[in-house]
Amino acid sequence: MQGAAGVAGAERPAAEASRWTKFNDILFDFDKSDIRANETSKVAAVAAYLKQNPSAQVAIDGHADPRGTDPYNQALSQRRVTTIRDALVKAGVPGDKIQTGAFGEERLKCSESTEPCWQLDRRVEVLISSGK
Description:
- By secondary structure, the protein is α+β, with helices and mostly antiparallel strands.
- Helices cover 31% and strands 19% of the residues.
- Strands 1-4-2-3 form a four-stranded mixed sheet.
- Helix 2 links the parallel strand 2 (57-62) and strand 3.
- It is globular and about 40 Å long.
- The two termini are 23 Å apart.
């Protein structure tokens, strides 16, 4: 997992994975890292939750579908994470409450070579921790 310190967030140790709860997935168009209009409400929901729960932390993990080379998909998933992180910070979430990871095509949700399947893999997963 690639993670950056500071504003970008910190890498989440694997041992901590059990304290994270799935919040939602933010989906992306093919070969894109900008937030789709129909996905902006998900970013707003994450920001609202974190404002209501000040001790909570958020982890955002970027993913890509299997089309493209491994290095390209890794970079694309990182761009997706950066986009979501920046949107959360703009919405008032402190950068030190955001942890990031970029996995490229390492953690596919679906193995079929179909557009509905690939859509599931073009995502940023949002996970929430109580911060305790």
